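Researcher: Please predict.
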Amino acid sequence: MYLLGYDIGTSSVKASVVDAKTGQTVASAQYPDAEAPITSKQAGWAEQEPEMWWDELKQATKRVAEKAGSLAEVAAIGISYQMHGLVCVDKEGAPLRPSIIWCDGRAVPYGNAAFDAIGGEKCLEHLLNSPGNFTAAKLAWVKENEPEIYAKIDKIMLPGDYIALRLSGGDKKTTISGLSEGMFWDFKNNEVSKDILNYYGFSENLISEIVPTFSVQSKVCEAVAAELGIPAGTPISYRGGDQPNNALSLNVMKPGEIAATGGTSGVVYGVLGEVNYDKLSRVNTFAHVNHNQPDTRLGVLLCINGTGILNAWMKRTVAPEGISYGEMNDLAESVPVGAEGLSVIPFGNGAERVLQNQNPGASVHGINFNIHKKAHMLRAAQEGIAFSFAYGMDIMAKMGMEIKTIKAGHANLFLSPLFRRTLAAVTGATIELYETDGSVGAAYGAGIGAGIYKDSDDAFKTLKHIATEKPVEDCEAYKAAYKLWVERLEK
């Protein structure tokens, strides 16, 4: 018995087949090999065709079927998807325009105006975020600028909702988690936000039927089953945005647990067990995949722009030519904790929400020409990245999150012992590394939703653990370096 997971990304669609009994990944494939195109008709705009995602899914399915031998034993399907995108469909389920995707910035003024008109405190109390640049604000842009298209909209959907629609042959459904990422969910009243609907003049009829995140939401129709080689009637039993799904793939489901990634940008996603928010709106808060009254499970999302991109810049620009990342880590480890007073502020890739959208850029502090060398710069850079993670987690802690465990995939910055050791020391959390990815997580989610697994602990009992990093006994040097870094940042 197999589980099939899809990850509908911005650059490609990935598909994975998981053996439900052993938990082993039977096959994985993605399409296309090069990054999928993003259309930008004006500066700050970003659109993709929903039909392109469907075509990519079909190609990825063909590839994974060839590797797996057959998809005849698929018992459930799960979907992970790029968050916050707007898909507008007509009564037949056909897209009316390209999707305005997550990184499109045109709707910021519409979100900010709603925040001011509804009231900042009320928005944060009920929606837990500013409407900002999320899906509701994007729909407001369509309503004002493309009224002829807006008039034809039957339902609005997120990218994962649209893929489920195509797989099922037309079912228009969504989840509380999905609505929350679009700023349509009122957490205080536990309903679709009347404040947002009334302010923008949206009809509640635009919202699709709400189904539980883990449930038999719909089934694969006969036509699609014949085309993809999947049994007709296969349940589509899970969908989740990419960051909540990444947390699921690491079995981050309990309050106080953290899922982290350290690629080009860094993401910290923590689970909060109470309805709360940051009064300065420095983090985003959404319904986690297991949010269910009365069991509050909120996902607090922090994005840090200057992480892996800083480490890569150091390798290209500062490290000795031809050095590998492993050798660069060894060189950084050759100098003491705190890099003998040298600090690197890593925010060199744009404004940071965690800094209230200020853009301090990247900078180096405390250089002593007599003692500091390349190794000091390399160490200070990795420490600065770890400190930026910790800075965001401090905000989460003030929201009531007791951070005990950080889980991450064994990849990117988390391959560096120096980075892991620093992060563990300043947060006091244990770091656990696993072998997983988004499409595999979606497959496990499908197994939970279809009742094949009784819960996430049952589903992830075979999750491959790679390593554990516990805080060192003497953390004082790390904490002193972090304190100095914070002082320099806040100046």
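Model: Residues 55 and 235 are 21 Å apart (CA to CA).
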